[in-house]
Specification:
- The complex is a heterodimer of chains A (about 110) and B (about 475).
- With about 110 residues, chain A is an all-alpha fold.
- Chain A has one domain.
- Helices cover about 75% and strands about 0% of the residues of chain A.
- In chain A, about 40% of the residues are buried.
- Chain B is mostly helical.
- Chain B folds into two domains: about 170 residues, Cytochrome C Oxidase, Chain A (Up-down Bundle), CATH 1.20.210; about 270 residues, Cytochrome c oxidase-like, subunit I domain (Cytochrome C Oxidase, Chain A).
- Chain B contains 16 helices and no strands.
- The chains are: A mainly alpha (about 110), B mainly alpha (about 475).
Chain lengths: ~110, ~475
């Protein structure tokens, strides 16, 4: 009897470059998202730039989806990547909320 | 007698810190030199053949990297302890004695690496030449010496932390350094089963850097932000605790990505994938943290109409140190985050494991996450020992920053290109065969990438020379405010 192979599908040769680029862009776009969000919140950037932050989060999420597809990830890893995308969305909000809260407490 | 960061003179702890930093920078130079030798050997394989073979040059390159960082970390703790606790470090005399023991042990180990190099496969070699375990090759006698030194250091830290003021930074450091010293024990014994052996070996290699070292960096960044830009302690320390939770939360089980191919059960694929996917989040969070604190202080300065560093309390008191700290936030995100993330999931790691991708990640992550902040701490110590109020940039400090950061980035890109060739040719096309390995290595892109790696290594070394020049000339340079 042939044992079940856990990793069934190889990555196609032409998919390696888009795979590496998309996975790098996940964090590049993610970095822009959190950077712009934080910079707007501390008044380093104007408020109208905030939508740009969310556009970058969407781009990061799309790249994460692309990366997962090209890798042929299984169900579990796909769910893990969704958790990571949501974590990235919430992270600057949570960080800013907490930092700001502590700042306010110590200034008043 | 306690002191603050601007007046390191008179504190024995800070004096000991400068000793640690001095030996760290010597080892940093050695790391770069042996790295250059190894890089030349990729381009000219006959270079120093049978005198200093690639295996020895690479071993010293990596060991020197680890040890200079450990020295700089110990130095950083001895530097900040009097500031944080309000008292002189307890047991400083033992600390000084252990420093000399540590230095002597390292010198003997390196001389044996260079002169004896290899021995027969018996216990004598393991005890007196090297253990042959990648990255932690130190012979067993030196292993025990390191344990004694580390325990003495941890004892100093704990006694001082308990006796003096217990800030969040010191409390985190106490817990972190205990784990740091304890984890080294996991790399000191052999088992007959290579999978079991590798399993424990990773406890040192991974948990050191992705858990305890990252937490250490968080504590140093917190201290530096308070010291350099006057960030609020409550904010910085609150955030430090969150970083600790996130780093331990993702870092410990993130170790699963090292268990993919060593014979461990397959459930490590799922665990490794999940926590590896989460591992960049604390790095992103650290990036936000620095940006937030810097933005708050800058915004405050702008609101108060200050130019440059005119307002006391909101001054960037050490510009080179601050630049290295900012580089740390970016470098950690880039080297550990991006370069780590794109080859960490098992589906792609099957192809990238053990290629030059790993080397690219190693260069960028160690530089971005650790070297940057430790150099920043050295600048703080230089400022303190020379009694400088505001340490400014000089041509040498700027050249050092650009050439070291640019050189390491260049090496990272060159190694990434080489790794990409290996993935396509050696792994995907030729199925990780013997012939595939050599075909991948002999291709034009791989060869040229190695040429560029060497060129960028030379640029890094020149940057290091500028850094040393700046360190040595700071004391007499009139440009700094005293």
């Amino acid at each position: 009897m042939i044992e079940e192979v856990a990793m069934r599908q190889d990555i196609l040769l032409d998919d390696f470059l888009p795979l590496f680029v998309s996975s790098s862009l996940v964090l590049v776009f993610g970095g822009f998202y959190v950077g712009i969000y934080t910079a707007v919140k501390v008044n380093l950037l104007k408020k109208w730039t905030m939508p740009l932050a969310y556009i970058f989060w969407m781009l990061a999420s799309y790249c994460l989806y692309l990366m997962g597809s090209l890798m042929h990830v299984g169900d579990f890893t796909a769910k893990a990547l969704v958790v990571a995308a949501i974590g990235l969305l919430l992270l600057p909000h949570a960080v800013y909320y907490m930092q700001h809260h502590v700042h306010e407490e110590n200034e008043h | 007698m306690a002191s603050n960061h601007l007046t390191g003179i008179g504190s024995e702890s800070k004096q000991l810190a400068t000793w640690y930093f001095t030996f760290a920078i010597i080892l940093f130079g050695a790391q770069l030199l042996f790295g250059l030798v190894a890089a030349i050997q990729y381009v000219m394989p006959g270079f120093l053949f049978e005198l200093l073979d690639f295996s020895v040059a690479r071993m010293i390159h990596i060991n020197a990297l680890v040890v200079w960082m450990v020295f700089a970390m110990f130095g950083s703790v001895y530097w900040l302890l009097p500031d944080e606790t309000g008292i002189e470090t307890v047991g400083i005399k033992i600390g000084k004695l252990l420093y000399w023991v540590f230095v002597a042990a390292i010198v003997v180990v390196v001389l044996v690496y260079l002169i004896v190099q290899v021995g027969p496969a018996d216990e004598m070699s393991i005890w007196f030449i090297h253990e042959g375990r990648e990255y932690i090759e130190a012979p067993r006698w030196a292993d025990w010496g390191i344990v004694v030194v580390a325990l003495g250091f941890v004892a100093n830290l704990f006694m001082t932390g308990i006796k003096g003021k217990q800030t969040g930074i010191v409390t985190v450091l106490m817990a972190d350094m205990l784990a740091f010293a304890g984890l080294y024990l996991a790399g000191m014994f052999f088992t007959d089963n290579i999978s079991v052996d590798q399993y424990w070996w990773w406890w040192v290699i991974h948990l050191w850097v992705e858990a305890t070292w990252e937490v250490f960096v968080g504590a140093l960044a917190a201290y530096a932000l308070i010291t350099i830009i006057g960030a609020k302690r409550q904010v910085v320390e609150m955030w430090l605790w969150i970083e600790v939770a996130m780093l331990f939360g993702s870092g410990i089980l993130g170790m699963g990505h090292h268990y993919f191919w060593i014979g461990t059960p397959e459930y490590w694929w799922e665990i490794g994938a999940l926590f590896s996917a989460l591992e960049p989040l604390p790095l992103v969070a650290m990036f936000i943290h620095v940006l937030y604190d810097w933005g708050k202080e800058t915004g405050l300065q702008m609101a108060e109409g200050a130019e440059g560093h005119a307002i006391a309390g909101h001054t960037i008191t050490n510009k080179p140190a601050f630049t290295w700290i900012v580089l740390n936030a970016f470098g950690n995100f880039l080297g550990a985050g991006i370069w780590g993330f794109f080859h960490t999931l098992p589906q792609v790691n099957l192809y990238t494991h053990g290629t030059q991708f790993t080397s690219a990640h190693g260069h960028l992550a160690f530089f971005g996450a650790y070297a940057t902040i430790l150099i920043g701490m050295m600048y703080l110590a230089i400022q303190g020992t020379n009694g400088i109020k505001v340490l400014k940039h000089t041509k040498s400090s700027i050249a050092g920053i650009w050439m070291i950061a640019g050189g390491v980035m260049g090496m990272g890109i060159a190694l990434t290109i080489a790794g990409y060739v290996q993935v396509l040719v050696s792994r995907a096309q030729m199925g990780a065969t013997w012939a595939g390995y050599f075909d991948g290595q002999s291709g034009m892109w791989f060869s040229q990438a190695m040429d560029w790696r060497l060129i960028m290594g030379v640029v890094t070394f020149l940057g290091f020379a500028f850094l040393i020049k700046d360190f040595l000339s700071t004391g007499k340079n009139p440009v700094h405010e005293r």
